[in-house]
Amino acid sequence: MKAKLAAVALLLATAACGADEPGAADDGATLTLWTRAATEAVSKAYADAYNASHRNKVEVTAYPNEEYPAKLASAAGARSLPDLFAADVVFAPQYASQGLWADVTDQFQSLPFKDSVAPSHVRAGTWEGRTHAVPHTIDLSVMLYNKDLYAKAGLDPEKPPRTLAEFAEHARKIDQLGGDVHGTYFGGNCGGCVEFTFWPSVWAAGGEVLDAEGRTALVDSPEMAEVFAVYRDLYDQGVASPASKAEAGPTWLGALQSGKVGIAPAPSVWLDAIEAKGVKTGLAPIPGLTGGESTFVGGDAIGIGATSGKAQQAWDFLAWTMSDEAQVEVIAQRKGVPVRTDLAANRHSSADPRLVTANGLVAKGKTPYARNFNATFNDPQGPWLTTVRGALFGNAGQALATGNEAITKSLRQG
Amino acid sequence: MTGALYATPAAVLVGLFFVVPLLLVVWMSLHRWPLLGNPRLNAPDNYTAVVDNALVASAAWFTLRYTVLITALLFVIAFGLALLVQNRRPGVGFFRTAFFLPMTVGFASASLLFLGLLSEEIGPLPAGGDSPALGSAVLLVLWRFAGFNMLILLTGLQAIPLDVYEAARIDGASRWQVFGRITVPLMRPTIALVLTMMITGSLLAFDQFWILTRGGPDNSTTSLVMVIYREAFVRLDLGSAAGISVVLLVLLAVVSSVQFAVLRRRSA
């Protein structure tokens, strides 16, 4: 009995300590946070709201997208990582495996809402069963279409395509408007753009691009070949803008903002940026060749720099960013996609049916997982871009077969 | 003793900024070297991987072709410019300054300038398609470095005593004879210097391709240093990057020593 009492007392003491912890973790520390330019606005919005209600102060520094991974690598080599850093979610397994982020498994497990935190993002930040990163922002690939051009081409602006075949048909109709209007547009010289926008069509058809461990490529599947064939035809027939072949990413958004493109798969976060240029835009899920829908759940993951001495304070910020308050009043308020599936419907999203569509896709979509993802797929010198160029502009059959081998080799490289 | 003391500052600088990093690179190339955590000896894996790396082979081939192309063009243009502004006459100062001026723009800034200039979206001279990738980089390098090399060649030209030219003229030598028998032979040390700098610079090309083409399209403008960058900052494999660096360093040392041997022997 005495032992039991002592145990209870101990438990109470621990609980009391636990209750004190938020105070201890919010002790007025200054936390540095690094992010890439694409995510800067969201990171700053989180930081501003957090700083307004906490004693800790988060200072955000953003770096150009392309230079950011090198900046992180050199900081890690010099053991001077920031207290917190975000990264493209597809890079997360590599950073986790390299130990660049501190282990936050226990803290994450203690969150009451842990089960509704975007599962594919959490999986991306996991290495050998330990959690190293949590979702920071979510960016989904969707079809964005120009409602005015739809109406001009005699299509119903409220009826986006339900299959990839129908998408091609719509694009052709709009292309017939002539002038400098084109049916569609894609980043044909950008591995990251193509995986983000083409893979959902493969998934929607029930296909896979990678095995679950990210060690074997499956790009020589019939589903993948069919998807490439659709875009290849659109390019060959001039329905896709000729600039698609050289598009390496930087001018992709600008092309859609011009209002001269009918329908194109693109990041959901561009909706506002495109409408800001006066282009009335519709949003629809990316379909498979004959139906179904999926999305690439992209965005950024964030973790605590492994060399930071303020891990406790940094976790206080991370836990807060995933709270109802931050997700609804910071993320949903600025039309972002919440990182929690239980907050998909909220008072901000219900005002815009397009946001409900986007938020609902998180559960259907995937975030591919591979330790060597960047070197294989996003890096311009990786084997994926060679495969893409062959499949779209060269010998398609051969490109996918030899590409599959090269990609698998790259995925397994030590 | 005093001599050794005088040499100490230079020796310390060379040791600190050349010898130590060099030894460290060699040491790293013998290890599996993670960003954080402890290195592990894995020699000679990083070197055998160089041979297996298909990208290294294609990048080496491209870098060699680029080096030959740039060295030939840059040398001809720089020498031509130097001969044009060799003699003092009205307005020559203006041209010397104009030719040299691009050198004052940082190379990365110059690359970005060309990127904007040739952009299909915002550029006044849009370069469509993907064929001009190498051409635009070559143009950039010629514009940026011709003036600088001109300046070095000019100092070589002006170091040739005028009496020699006068003597040749009195003997009735033609312009071509003067150029071939006097200018070029007496310029040999300067030419050796300029060629060495051009070849070394071209074999180490990075900025112009990194900014202008990202190595594309289809890896057609991926230089060796870009492969080193990929190993270190994309694959996060510092040991492998160090391995390729050491191979490139040996290659550079061989090329430079052959070059010097050839050029010095002839002038001796």
Automatic annotation (TrEMBL), chain A:
The positions making up the signal sequence are 1-19
Which Pfam families does UniProt cross-reference here?
SBP_bac_8
Write out the entry's keywords from A to Z: Signal, Transport
The entry's family comment says: Belongs to the bacterial solute-binding protein 1 family.
Per its record, how is this protein called by name?
Answer: Sugar ABC transporter substrate-binding protein
